[in-house]
Amino acid sequence: METLEPLLKEHPFFRDLEPGIIQLLTGCAKNVRIEAGQVIFREGEDADQFYLIRDGRVALEVFTPRGPAPILTISAGEALGWSWLIPPYKWRFDARATETTRALALDGKCLREKCDEDPRLGYELLKRIAGIMAERLHATRLQMLDVYGARD
Predict the structure, then answer these.
(1) Which class for 37: exposed (0-12), middle (13-18), buried (19 or more C-beta within 10 A)?
(2) Is the bond leading into 119 cis (omega within 30 degrees of zero)?
(3) Number of compact structural domains in the chain
(4) Is 136 strand, coil or helix?
(5) Residue 103 belongs to a domain
(6) What is the tens place of the pLDDT at every residue in 92-149?
(7) Domain of residue 114, CATH code
(8) Among 93, 73, 71, residue whose Cα is nearest residue 81
(9) Is 151 within a domain?
(10) Contact status, residue 136 vs residue 71, Cβ threshold 8 Å
């Protein structure tokens, strides 16, 4: 059986992590295929996965009275989902595949346990997740400016 370790090591989110840490995280990972149009998760549901996108595209959406509003599109080489790390471990957005997507899905509970066992790992993942959170906040801000910006 082929290990997912090389795929984790190649993904930009895990770039420059020690090989031992990659090996440790491999036990939390599995390959997934998400069909175009499939909802991956919805806001308010339990956040139990962390996705490293290998191929395809995923739209992050928020619900509005007019229906779903896209905030950001995530594609190959990017990570999806930070809510597995931040209590209360509930998704903050909806995510939907806009095309067939292949990803590595890491079990959130498994990752949290590894972080509890090794605070250095937890700190390293938190720094990387904080970068994702900052990007998503910025994208949401830009979307709001586009929708609610000054009108002449």
Answers:
(1) exposed
(2) no
(3) 1
(4) helix
(5) yes
(6) 999 999 999 999 999 999 999 999 999 999 999 999 999 888 987 887 787 777 767 6
(7) 2.60.120.10
(8) 93
(9) no
(10) yes
Environment class of residue 1 by beta-carbon count within 10 Å: exposed (0-12), middle (13-18) or buried (19+)?
Answer: exposed
> Is the pLDDT reported for residue 150 higher than 60?
no
Does the residue 100 lie in any domain?
Answer: yes
Instruction: Report whether 110 contacts 84 (CB < 8 A).
Output: no
Q: Comparing C-alpha atoms, which of 22, 138, 11 is closest to residue 75?
A: 11
H or E element: which one contains 108? helix 108-117
Question: What range does the domain containing 105 cover?
Answer: 5-144
The CA-based dihedral angle spanning residues 119, 120, 121, 124, taken in that order and rounded to the nearest 10 degrees: 120
Give the residue among 95, 67, 69, 78 at the shortest CA–CA distance from 132: 78
Predicted TM-score of the model (pTM): 0.88
